[in-house]
Amino acid sequence: MPDPRFFQTLSPLTVAVLAEKIGGEVVRGGEVVISAVAPLSTADRGAIAFLGDRKFAAALAETRAGCVIVPASAVDAAPPGAAVIVSSEAQAAWARASALLHRPLRLNRATSAAEAAEDDSVVIEPGVVLGEGVRVGRGTRIGANTVIGPGVQIGRDCLISAGVTVGFALLGDRVKLLAGARIGEAGFGAAGSKAGPVDIPQLGRVILQDGVTVGANSCIDRGAYDDTVIGENTKIDNLVMIGHNCVIGRNNLMAAHTGISGSVTSGDNCIFGGRAGVGDHITIGEGARVAAGGGVLADIPPGEIWSGYPAKPLRQFLRETVWLSKEASRKKGAKESKE
User: Fold this and answer.
1) How far does CA 319 lie from the centroid of its chain?
2) Is the pTM for the entire model greater than 0.90?
3) How confident is residue 39, by pLDDT bands cut at 50, 70 and 90?
């Protein structure tokens, strides 16, 4: 179930009503009542899940969801106890169901600094807006014109600079957010449908653990359903992008213009050079390094240094670069000798 500090769960609907509203056909269980959406792996009897790819067939067979949305070819694979909706665009149908069952809490009412602050040591500069349910720990300072969304919890001795926005997030102690940082915006997710792409509601959170620093104008998206997590003491430079569902380890360093796609996992003590890019669903091992400008499209084992595009182990990259340079010189010399 999405965190109630950040999301309102709306009235339950029967499978039959859901199917009518999201564009699916009920195969069985139209009377089942559904109150939430969830992935196959974590859904319970009150939730609806979907199968979007055959690689998750095992998860479909084991799911405890009260209802599943599947393509016609997968009806027989659905668990016997689950209601079934058939749709040729299962993920888009699930996204529509998400919007019918959950709604992000918006900044409808501001909280006063006195309500939000742990004690008088909290400094709230002019123009700050605090949403309902915000809590700010002792010794924290929030810069001018910053907006803190409903339900956000901020630890002690944090520094949040001017013009920052924070929503759907939990911040530990000694967290620093520099000017213009954007924490907890919706992650990029769209499902294909006959009517065009459908936005997938982002129902997760951002968790910034103790000692994290986020540079100016950097963005960290909230999870699609699970959380985006930044580990203790990780330092993020200006103009860095971290996508939804990422789990970043402790003591990571990310230089400017690093881009981390969704569902990336990095171990502790990893380093990303400037303009490094990482594709989605990649795992970066503990202590690994990505050189500046590297484009990572495969998992990196612990402790290795990768470079280039597509990125590969540094020694291999250097050998190939030297070979290409020699080949280019040799061919140039051969051409000149013929002339």
Assistant:
1) 36
2) yes
3) very high
